[in-house]
Design a protein that fits this description.
By secondary structure, this protein is an alpha/beta fold. Helices cover 59% and strands 10% of the residues. Strand 1 and strand 2 form a beta hairpin. It starts with a helix and ends with a helix.
């Protein structure tokens, strides 16, 4: 079976996408700077796959590829990469950083700003080394892919490639759903490549990679979002004796949550607990709305907010938490066992999506400390919680309040401008003056923002009650762009490409360009003759990113939503390719005009128009408006691909084009996410013009 060329192509296509999502997830977990600049890993994978696929594609090079040893190095490069990722905590790579200004905010345990030039250079060097290593790993996979593509008719091969890629994404996400760890992921990925690597040294290297991955897991738990570890959370009594008050939960090597026993019996035994900032913070909402009976907790986490609600005798709590593993830890580890109370209903869901889909009115809505440390998609630098903190989202929460309801938002804002932005967003979204309190939960900029009809009705009493904690509005009015669904970048101070983003993008683009020129032997003619495919790749990546962000707004930022979108995009491309196979005479202009018109529609229809629809109507409208451009984009690519003289090279250059798209995605921090559609439109038009000019030149030369 393994000698069958279609089977081999399916397996290498499966492995390419499977290892892509695997490396992005694992590397961004262990070396946390990649969690905030996730596109850097994606770009490395694109460069490697594109160069490898293009290099091994032509008929003239197929025999050379068989004899070449380049593709044979995958097991050894994988072992090196695996070893570095696994050893990151030991050699100090967990918290490397290249941020030198405070215009972008990160959750890091060490200093947010690099103050030493020497340390900055070392950190940047490590990023470059890891980037090049990712390029090398995927270059070898790309060579295998290009070789297998060259053995079959182009459209048939492309169908198999898309099918294998879609299954690769599906299998990885099933493993994520099962909360498996990197050892299991590598075991599955390596198994798919065994037909290609049979030499004893290669098998030893592959086996060693799997063993290293399993050994690195330790006692951690892997949720769909985080690597989670726990340890006892202790404090000291008045007599300085240390005792446990709960469990500390670390994710991706940074402290994330702590379960705390604040039950009346425990606090009476240990009255010093009343001095903890957590004690006051979690109780504040119930001191503001003492009559609250129906409560919604967004970002319920391991249960502190829910436990506080139960201690104040509410009748019912809806607890929404996006991470099932964190929720499970709350059920087993929280000393007060809040999730076992019959008054509590739990929902594993995106908080924004729950509010928009639920029509209940609440006496109290509590935004827990929803401050994620990861991006929600491998295609975007948008963080998991960004769409919860937009004006549109806060409006939804305000509308969900009962006539005398109160909303409370707690945030450990490490930078003062983050605190100011949150206050101003609540003020804009609610149309009322919020009450801001200094919580000092984990730093001096931690804040509790209170608003709603209940706050307006009792403002004077509340100002007197919390007079020592009130933050004057005059201290929260610094000029800042406010977050919207179009510009959801809570942790970005200004609408600008920051030093950190810009410098690293420029540096890695220079490296990628040098590798490309070197691989094509300084002969740009061969590369740019396939310029249409390069531009199509860039446009498609931007289109994919915009679709992912739009779906996140409409249906939530969960791993399941992003996984389904990627899978469906691949399936739609497969169906488009099937149509072209069945209708080879389909007019090119039909697909091109259809694509451009659908892009205009996608740009013109605001997300707010879809957000107000009922769920199933919203799904249908989103499938049509967001999905239609992918249908036509798939037709455009397959029509062009069928005419390519060197299909493997065309696909490789198309993948390299996605690198450009990944870089352009970062400009959304300036122009907003909606305008990514305009850039995609320009790229697609440029691709059509490039194809016209190349065909015209070819015709005139004949």
């Amino acid at each position: 079976m393994f000698n069958n060329s279609r089977t081999n192509l399916f397996l290498i296509s499966f492995a390419a996408l499977f290892f892509e999502v695997l490396v992005i997830r694992w590397l961004s977990t262990e070396i946390r700077i990649f969690g905030y600049f996730k596109n850097l890993i994606l770009m490395g994978a694109f460069v490697g796959l594109g160069l490898g696929c293009a290099s091994a594609s032509s008929a003239a090079s197929v025999e050379q590829s068989d004899k070449s040893t380049a593709a044979e190095f995958f097991p050894y490069l994988l072992l090196i990469l695996t070893g570095l990722i696994a050893a990151a905590p030991i050699i100090g790579l967990n918290h490397i950083n290249f941020v030198v200004t405070t215009d972008v905010f990160f959750w890091l345990q060490k200093a947010d700003v690099v103050t030493s030039i020497e340390q900055l250079l070392i950190n940047v060097a490590w990023v470059i080394v890891l980037f090049l290593l990712v390029v090398g790993v995927f270059d070898t996979l790309g060579r295998r892919l290009g070789l297998e593509l060259s053995k079959q008719e182009s459209l048939n091969a492309y169908s198999v490639n898309l099918g294998g890629s879609a299954i690769g994404v599906l299998v990885y996400n099933v493993l994520a759903f099962m909360q498996t760890n990197p050892g299991v992921w590598l075991l599955v990925g390596v198994a798919s490549l065994l037909p290609f690597y049979k030499k004893p040294p290669q098998l030893i290297a592959l086996a060693a990679s799997v063993i290293v991955a399993f050994c690195s897991v330790g006692n951690s738990t892997w949720s769909p979002y985080y690597c989670i570890t726990t340890k006892p959370y202790t404090t000291k009594a008045a007599n300085s004796a240390e005792y446990q008050i709960g469990t500390a939960i670390d994710v991706n090597h940074v402290t994330f949550q702590r379960t705390i026993d604040m039950s009346s019996a425990f606090v009476e035994k240990h009255p010093e607990l009343k001095l903890l900032p957590e004690y006051a913070t979690y109780n504040v909402p119930y001191l503001v709305n003492k009559e609250a009976k129906n409560v919604l907790v967004l970002g319920a986490g391991s249960g502190n907010d829910v436990a506080a609600a139960l201690r104040h005798d509410v009748k019912h709590v809806d607890a929404v938490e996006i991470d099932p593993a964190i929720l499970d830890l709350g059920k087993t580890e929280h000393p007060e066992k809040p999730y076992s109370d019959p008054r509590v209903s739990t929902y594993v869901n995106d908080a924004r999506n729950f509010v928009s889909s639920n029509h209940t009115k609440y006496d109290l809505i509590v935004f827990g400390f929803v401050d994620s440390t990861v991006s929600f998609s491998m295609l975007s630098s948008v963080r998991l919680d960004n769409f919860l903190y937009t004006i549109e989202s806060l409006k939804l929460a305000t509308q969900a309040l009962a006539p005398d309801g109160v909303a409370s938002l707690s945030f450990a804002a490490g930078a003062p401008w983050v605190r100011d932005r949150l206050f101003q967003m609540v003020q804009t979204a609610s149309g009322m003056e919020p009450l801001a309190l200094n919580s000092v939960y984990s730093n001096n900029n931690s804040i509790i923002i209170l608003w709603g009809p209940g706050v307006n009705a009792h403002r004077a009493e509340l100002m007197a009650q919390f007079k020592d904690l009130v933050i004057p509005t005059a201290q929260l009015v610094s000029s800042l762009p406010l977050c919207t669904d179009d510009w959801p970048f809570l942790y970005q101070k200004d609408r600008a490409l920051t030093y950190a983003y810009g410098t690293m993008l420029a540096l890695l683009l220079l490296i990628a360009g040098s590798l490309t020129i070197s691989r094509f032997r300084l002969n740009p003619k061969s590369f740019f003759h396939s310029g249409q495919f390069f531009l199509l790749g860039a446009g498609f990546l931007l289109l994919e990113t915009r679709a992912m962000l739009a779906v996140a707004v409409l249906f939530g930022s969960t791993w399941l939503v992003s996984s389904i979108v990627i899978f469906l995009i691949l399936i739609m491309a497969w169906l488009a390719n099937w149509v072209v196979q069945k209708r080879p005479n389909l007019n090119d202009n039909i697909a091109r005009i259809g694509l451009l018109v659908s892009l205009v529609v996608l740009y013109m229809v605001p997300l707010s128009a879809l957000s107000d629809l009922e769920w199933f109507t919203r799904l249908g409208a989103a499938a049509l408006i967001i999905g239609l451009p992918f249908t036509f984009a798939g037709l455009v690519f397959s029509k062009a691909y069928a005419k390519a003289n060197e299909p493997g090279k065309a696909l490789g250059i198309n993948i390299l084009g996605a690198l450009l798209g990944g870089c352009l995605e970062y400009f959304s921090v300036i122009i907003g996410t909606r305008d990514l559609v305009i850039i995609a439109f320009v790229l697609y038009v440029s691709a059509f013009v490039a194809d016209y000019l190349i065909n015209k030149r070819s015709s005139s030369s004949i």
